[in-house]
Structures are given as structure tokens and as C-alpha cells.
Amino acid sequence: MIRIYKFQHEFFLIMSAFSVICLSCKTDQLLDIEEQKRSLAAPDSLNIFSLSEDSLKLTWRDNSTSELQFILERGEGRTPQSYKQIATVAANLTEFNDADLDKSRTYSYRVKAIREFLESEYSPQISVEISDGILLKSFIGHNGFVNAIAISPDGQMLATGSSDKKVILWNVATGNQLRQLVGHSDRVISLDFSSNGTMLASGSEDNYVILWNTLTGATVRKIYQYAAPNSIVFSPNNQSIAAGLSNYYLSIWNVSSGALIVNLSTGYTGFPGISSIDFSPNGTRIVGFYGRSEIRMWDVNSSSGLWVVQITPVYAGFVCFRPDGNSFASSAYTLDLRRTSNGSVIRQFENTGGYPVCFSMDGQKLVSGGNEVKIWEVSTGKLLYSIETYSGPVVFTNSNDQIIAPMNDDFISSSYGANLWKLASKWAVVP
Question: Disulfide: which of 131, 159, 181, 420 matches 150 by Cβ 3.0-4.6 Å?
């Protein structure tokens, strides 16, 4: 027979002479477990702070009042197939440093609270991977795509040229506009500062090169080119300016008088003409990328061609001298470091698709533009950094660890300008 008795406010179930169960005691125990579960709330606000290329700090918010410790787990990829416990963290502590990470991988993290035989739900997962650029500043002010960028030799002034037909001069330190240069009737496609920074040349599809006084914004001279100046560059002594034209002419003009010094022609016609030129640092050579598949070196004093190199055809190519003048970079189907003497390849970096290139001022780094800007170590060919940005020209500042690349957000905010990036590898949360 089963009987229920009450004794000192407790109810007992008598199963037999040797089996007695306290009903209200069990109920109290169950209620106590539920209370503990409620007090063991899941952590949240999981976040990271990058410490180095192979380490980061994890932090989270403690929502529990009764945990004994936290269990931290890590998986690989944005949707891990499995997680591995990497740490136990004492109660009330809400951070942990994870080290020896592989910068080529994506990691995901989650954390939960533990109390004896109870555990909370997991925190929301976060995923992290290496990001190679720190955005320092944006220069937004154009109403159309930025097609050309130039930095003054002292690094204090930035020039951006746009499809809105304007050139804007910027203070690099403050990010403020210094002045807008208005004078072209078609989109601006090329820019270059004089070596003393007092003049800026702008080239446009209106076939004019305009020389500007950077201190006043006044027009110094307008030079008609008979074709679009795809690329323009001052001579190192600022006495002449060269233009690589869309009709395959390489024109050199006197800066003081605006008189034509020489027109160098190959007899070629058709698109795209000369897409890129550069003066050697001593001013005696000009290298140019012609059409889709030819690099030419010219002697400035004799106006004679020194050599021609045929390469794999591309849509357009770009060239840039290294500061020592003994070599130059060519960006076409491949990105190459070449000898000035004969155009032979010293080192090949990778397929780039013909994007603009530029050396750092110390000549130790090379940047290639595109939707993914890449920075290379010249001496080894090692890829140092990769930054996702907008396609277009890219330049180093006078600091060897900062670059400026276009900001052409045509689809989201219609923002056009340029971004200043610091070259540094850091861990960042990804969607």
C-alpha cells in the first residue's frame, strides 16, 4: 500500500516499509537546478583585438552570476565542421590571448560558461581573418571616378583627377581640400607633380595638358597634344614634360615656353596608344608601354630608341622606374622587375592583368594597383600585403609604409576620392 504523510512541513511518499521518498525535497532540488540554469546565462559580445600577425586577444561579456569558468573553442573557416577547446578561463575573467595563428587561415570562435555539471548556451560565433591595411583617412569630394592620383615629393600634398573634369588638391595631414583646379572640358586621366612640388601637370581626354601653380591654383600654361595624354611626367630638372599619347606619339615639351621639343613616333596607330611612360631619375631615359605588347626605352638627348621588348599582349600596361634608375617595373600580363640597360627580366612577381605600379621612395617595396592592391618586397619578390580596394592608380606617400588608392564607390554611396592606407597586418572580424 502507498501512503502520503506530512511531517514537519514535508510530504513523504511511503512506497513500502523500506522505501521513503521526500516529494517536496525533490521539488526544491529541481527548482534549485532551474534557478542555477537561469543564473548561468550565455556570454555574448565576443570580440577580438589584433596583437600581431599571429596573435589576437578575445574578449566577451559575462552575463552569468554563478559560473566557475569559461570554455573557449576555436574552429577553422567561417562555418567550422567542428570546434576544438583551446582554453579554460577562470570565473569573472573575460579575455584570452590566442597565439601561433596562421595568417592564411580564417578562424571562428565561441565561448560558454560552466558551473559543475551545468553549462550555458554558446555565445554567438565570430569569424576572423587577416586584413593587411589600416584605413587612416579618406579624401572624398569628386562627382565621378578618380582616374589619376599623384603625391607631392614632400608627401604633404595629394592631387586627384576625376571623370568630373576636376583636379582637387588635398592636405594629406588633415584630409582637407586645399583647392579645386577647374579648366578641363573632359575627364582627367593623368597627373604629375614637379620635383619641387610647385607645379602640377594634368592631362585630359580634351587633349590638353595644363600646368598649374600648386600654391595659388593659377594656370601656368595649357599645351594642346593632338591626342589624349594617357600618361604625363616631368623631367627630374623640371625643364621639360613628356606625354605618352593615345596616337602612339611620345611628345616632350619645354615647361617655360610651352614649345614642342620633340615628337617620337613608332608609326603605330590605333587603340590604346602609349598607356604609360616614366623618366629615369637622372633624366636621360624615358621608358614607355606601347599598345598592348611592347616596351620601349628612349634616349632623351639623342631622341633615339635604345631597345624594344615584346611581351604577352594585354589591355594596357604600365611602367615605373626604381629610384636607383638601374631597373624599372613593368605591369602587363605579368609584373616584372626589368633592367634599364636592355629590358631583360630580373624578377617576376605574378600575373596582375596590367595595373598601375609604383615604387616606395626607398625602392624596397613595389605596389601594383587593381581591385586588390598588392605590395611586394623587391629584393625577394615576396608578397608583403594585400588590400581589397577599388581599381585604379596607386602611389606610395613619402613614408614607405603608406599608400594612397582610389575610392570609387559607384554602387553604394556614390563617393569618389581616395583612401590613405597604412601597411600593416591585423586580425579583423569578417561577416
Answer: 159
pLDDT mean over 346-362: 86
Whether residue 268 sits in one domain with residue 354:
yes
Task: Give 72's strand partners.
Answer: 87, 111
Whether residue 231 has pLDDT greater than 70: yes
Contacts of 122 (CB under 8 A, 6+ apart): 42, 73, 110, 111, 112
Q: What is the mean pLDDT of residues 171-186?
A: 97
- pLDDT score for 35: 62
Question: Do 215 and 199 lie in a common domain?
Answer: yes
- Amino acid identity, residue 349? F
CA 275 to CA 315: how far, in whole Å? 10
Domain final residue pick, 102, 124, 146:
124
Q: Which residue has the higher pLDDT, 161 or 7?
A: 161
What tens digit of pLDDT does each residue of 371-382 get? 789 999 999 999
Asked if 71 and 219 sit in the same domain, the reply is no
Indicate whether 218 and 291 sit together in one domain: yes
- What is the span of the domain harbouring residue 9? 3-39
**Residue pLDDT, tens place only, 101-147:** 998 899 999 999 999 889 999 999 999 998 888 889 999 999 999 99
Confidence of residue 19 (pLDDT cuts 50, 70, 90): very low
With cell 555539471, the residue in question is 117
Cell numbers that stand for 138 in this block: 579618406
Chain centre to alpha carbon of residue 258: 38
Residues 148 and 227 in one domain: yes
Contact 30, 21 (CB under 8 A): no
Residue 30 makes CB contacts below 8 A (sequence gap 6+) with: none
Closest CA to 405 of 171, 170, 149: 149
Please tell me the distance from the alpha carbon of residue 151 to that of residue 358, in angstroms, as a whole number: 11
Q: Is residue 83 domain-shared with residue 156, that is, in the same domain?
A: no
- Indicate whether 35 and 141 sit together in one domain: no
Give the number of domains in the chain: 3
Q: Are 56 and 34 in a shared domain?
A: no
Distance CA 323, CA 363 (A): 6
What's the grid cell of residue 417?
A: 576620392
CA distance 101 to 389: 25
- CA–CA separation, 127 vs 78, rounded Å? 6
The rounded distance, in Å, linking the Cα atoms of 347 and 381 is: 7
Listed in sequence order, the residues at least 6 apart from 137 whose beta carbon sits closer than 8 Å to its beta carbon are 172, 175, 419, 420
Q: Tell me the Ramachandran region of residue 384: left when phi exceeds 0, alpha when psi lies from -120 to 50, beta otherwise.
A: alpha
